[in-house]
Specification:
By secondary structure, the protein is α/β, with parallel strands linked by helices. It contains 12 helices and 5 strands. It has a single domain, classed as 3-Layer(aba) Sandwich (Rossmann fold), CATH 3.40.50.300.
Amino acid sequence: MNKTSIKKGLKGKYLAFANKNRHLLPNFIIIGSAKSATTTLRIVLQTHPDIFFSRMKEPKFFGKNFNEGWEWYTSKFILGENFPLRGEASTMYTSNSKKYRRSAKLMNIYLPEIKLIYIVRNPWDRLVSQWRHRKGRDQNTPEFNSITTNKRLGRLLVGCSMYYKRLSEYRKYYQDKQIHCITYEDFLSKPNEILENAQLFLGVEPRSKDLLLENGHLPLENKAGEKGRVYVEKPKWDNEVKEAILQKIRPDAKKMLTYMGKSTDYWEL
């Protein structure tokens, strides 16, 4: 990542280009979280005739790929020029990686009117799933029980499960009416309702029944062992490690659930 381009971006150096190409840029973004059915949500929503998603699954532009430049980013949406809604889904926008610590501010400078969708999952389940994903992709990934001692692994896995903390960064720059939160559990248990609400939030005529697969099942994508990754079993964790992690996660989870209007015991933690 080119730090110079980020610094220029934070000073609004590329606003002229962004304003000129506003008709091509996204007007909504799914910002995460990882391993919470973001790919499934994207696949289902993009079947709506008024919704276009970037051809690149996760551009990660407002962070790691900002140095690729605005022409590169805009090119991902050219085919969606005539769609009322153009979106992308980059789960790293709500990660705890240093490469994305400026994502919310950077995004707001250039896309202040955008709508954001944040889908979250039981933070412990999400954390376990992300570890399996990483281990399946890279066998050198530290073992699960090292999360409390390996700072890099802990920062990533625990950090991505601190939903309210991550969301608070976006709330500094965006109004709550621009943010729509969904839980993974609700998405799987009542997909019609969740999809209808998401479409209403985005401002298109709901077509939930048409979007679902036969028999009302969602296309669960990006599961463990898919896309060339080695299948990794669920780890056997040390109870002390789990409790240490949950002590960090619980307060944040309660704040997030309260924000979403959910009972604080919605997730078993």
